[in-house]
Specification:
heterodimer; A: alpha+beta; 2 domains; twelve-stranded mixed β-sheet; 12 strands; elongated; B: alpha/beta; Rossmann fold; six-stranded mixed β-sheet; four-stranded antiparallel β-sheet; 10 strands; 41% helix; globular
């Protein structure tokens, strides 16, 4: 029985004993330090540029996707949320009453406007549920008719929805008081009627009623439907449709006051029947932010995961191929005295260096693409600061994962088999 | 039981006692059987045998690239079979230098970097490493090729770099497996001269060859035939004369 074979009940159970090798021999050869291995890996990677480039390509794509998706996600959130914060999150709508007994009146709106937190408020509603009217530019001449819907809006409602004119002006509260027969055209409606300017006070005719066009609305942040409609003061609306439509009051509040105004508004609009008025309040900004952020990021993160999988697979596949090509090299290193662990570490570090290169390259390309994409969407490019650090680290991690199996394969190569091949 | 052997084996650098190597499989192949001999420090030994005789297996066992399946092998008194793979690797790195038929230079490394490889395992500082590598390259007459990649050198030069790599860390034993097999006669003579010079400086030289002319240059020869090792070249010569006779009779038959 040799010193190593101890009878333990198991056949050929070899007990590993330390100290069989004289200390002088043990210390003669030192371990290949991590820095020395890293240096070897760097040389190996830098001298095989073709293989390194192809190998790093997958990681480059993965990290590019990571940077672009994160950047776009952050920028989109920023952009979308700022829009929501500015408009939707500060807008409250009130509805209520019946056709014959409208609860929402100018007097109610005046009371609502005095509430602390209300920036502006006004009456606005669609005539005949957006049923179009025949509108013409000449009386008794239906050859140039255009079918257009009408929106009734008080002067303060126009301010509330953020309407602006490209030609002419808005009507003011005097138009309603003095029963002026005026109208504004959304720019699409103006195009349909062939009106490009209000110079010369063009008139339009609807059901025999003549209206003077005093302005063309070119934008309305809060209610883009009006761009296709004819907008008239409430008095004109009552003449055209009989004033039986369900009305809406739209109010713009200060940031964070929407919930409060939603509660107080019905009492101001009609103190006698506040419960008959429903307030449509935007969701709390915090909830909204979370919802938007989640829905946008989920899809993008899926893309990132797919990209990283591609990166791992590409490094792993090419490294496995190269291990087969480098069998004799690995066998020689083993013959020279490299331990199995040294070989595994060398292969892993090579994969990690390739991953890092892919990571740095991917971060650079990703930043360029992302800034270009954000610019094309007119978004402010916003990127979390950590991404610049995380992206190359992600490359290293990709390399580390990808290098594990090839390192295991390389570790198992025996010097004799490799040198014989 | 002490790891170090008794005084009689301690004198010998390498000691083989009934060493055998059988490769598993169907059927199992016994490549080496009951080899028993010793090699002293600074000895020069040629192992001669025909292809497939088991001489390379013997060299692999001697160099700890392979493990014997029977018998005891001691390197400087250390029982090799007792050692785990890790310690066997350390012993191999400390005691042995290898020169193979192919140079096995790492293609992506320059001549100097190839020579530096075993030195890295000695934890040497860069300057010392470079100095030792340069010395080794000077000794093989290739100091001018230090920065060359293997593809920019001839076969003979590559083999000389391989010798420089094998001797740079000053191993006790230089194991050579047909190191001149791929070289022309002139280059082969240069390579042999380098190897003998290393031997004169105290390195034990063991060379496997099938070339009788090379074996005759060594003070001690062993033959391997069908896995059996014997002292002297007689068994090899007997086999060779048999082949020569057979070849002669075949040639005579064809001219008749």
């Amino acid at each position: 029985m040799t010193a190593s074979r101890i009878r333990t009940g198991w056949p050929s159970c070899r007990v590993r004993r330390r100290g069989l090798l004289p200390e002088a021999i043990r210390t003669e050869t030192s371990k290949l330090g991590i820095l020395a291995t890293a240096h070897e890996a760097l040389i190996g990677v830098s001298r095989q540029l073709g293989r390194t480039t192809i190998c790093a390509l997958g990681t480059t794509i993965a990290v590019t996707a990571f940077v672009v998706t994160n950047g776009l996600s952050a920028s989109a959130n920023n952009s979308v949320l700022s829009t929501f914060n500015a408009l939707n999150a500060t807008t409250v709508e009130f509805q209520g009453g019946t056709s014959h007994h409208p609860l929402l009146t100018q007097a109610g709106v005046a009371r609502l406007s005095k509430l602390h937190g209300v920036v502006s408020a006004g009456l606005i509603w669609d005539l005949d549920q957006q049923q179009p009217y025949d509108v013409s530019r000449q009386p008794h001449d239906s050859s140039n008719d255009a079918e257009l819907s009408f929106t009734a809006a008080s002067a303060s409602a126009l301010t509330t929805i953020g309407a602006t004119t490209s030609s002419g002006r808005m009507y003011d509260s005097g138009a309603d008081l003095h029963h002026q027969m005026v109208a504004l055209l959304g720019y699409q409606a103006a195009q349909a009627l062939g009106i490009t300017s209000v110079r010369g006070a063009p008139a339009i005719f609807v059901d025999g009623v003549a209206l003077t066009v005093i302005g063309i609305i070119d934008s309305a942040q809060q209610d883009t439907e009006v761009l296709a409609n004819v907008v008239v003061p409430p008095y004109v609306a009552s003449i055209i449709s009989g004033g039986t439509d369900e009305r809406t009051v739209i109010a713009r509040t200060r940031a964070g006051a929407a919930q409060l105004i939603g509660n107080q508004g019905p009492y101001a609009l009609d103190p006698y029947q506040p419960t008959a008025i429903q307030a449509a309040v935007p969701p709390s900004p915090t909830t909204l932010r979370a919802q938007v952020a989640t829905s946008l990021s989920d899809l993008l993160h899926l893309l990132e995961l797919a990209g990283i999988a591609v990166g791992i697979l590409s490094i792993a596949a090419i490294t496995i191929l190269s291990i087969n090509q480098r069998r004799s090299e690995i066998g020689l290193l083993r013959a020279l005295g490299y331990r199995r662990l040294d070989i595994a570490r060398l292969i892993s570090l090579e994969a990690m260096v390739i991953g890092l290169l892919g990571g740095i390259l991917g971060t650079s390309i990703g930043m360029l693409l992302f800034v270009a994409a954000a610019d094309s969407q007119q978004w402010t490019p916003v990127i979390p600061a950590g991404i610049i650090v995380i992206a190359p680290v992600l490359g290293i991690a990709t390399g580390a994962v990808a290098g594990t199996y090839p390192a295991f394969l390389a570790m198992r190569i025996t010097p004799m088999a490799a040198l014989r091949s | 039981m002490s790891a170090l052997a008794g005084p009689e084996t301690k004198r010998s650098l390498l000691s083989l006692d009934r060493i055998g190597r059988t490769y598993g499989g169907q059927p199992a192949v016994r490549a080496l059987s009951t080899a028993s001999f010793t090699v002293d420090a600074a000895e020069a030994l040629a192992i001669i045998g025909r292809s497939g005789s088991g001489k390379s297996t013997l060299l692999n066992v001697l160099g700890l690239l392979d493990t014997a399946t029977e018998g005891e092998y001691r390197v400087a008194g250390v029982q090799v079979a007792d050692l785990p793979d890790h310690d066997r690797t350390l012993l191999r790195a400390a005691f042995f230098g290898f020169v193979f038929q192919q140079s096995f230079l790492v293609a992506s490394r320059t001549a100097r970097e190839n020579v530096e490889m075993p030195l890295r395992l000695r934890g040497m500082q860069r300057r010392e490493r470079e100095q030792r590598a340069t010395e080794a390259l000077v000794s093989v007459g290739l100091e001018g090729r230090a920065g060359f990649l293997p593809r920019a050198m001839s076969g003979g030069e590559c083999q000389r770099v391989a010798i420089a790599r094998a001797i740079a860390h000053r191993p006790r034993v230089l194991l050579c497996d047909e190191p001149t097999g791929n070289l022309d006669e002139h280059t082969a003579r240069d390579v042999l001269r380098l190897l003998f010079r290393a031997n004169k400086q105290g390195m034990t030289l063991i060379m496997v060859t099938h070339d009788l002319a090379i074996a005759r240059a060594f003070p001690r020869t062993m033959s391997v035939r069908d896995g059996r090792v014997s002292e002297g070249a007689d068994s090899f010569l007997a086999a060779e004369s048999l082949v020569t006779d057979l070849a002669g009779s075949l040639a005579a038959a064809s001219t008749r």
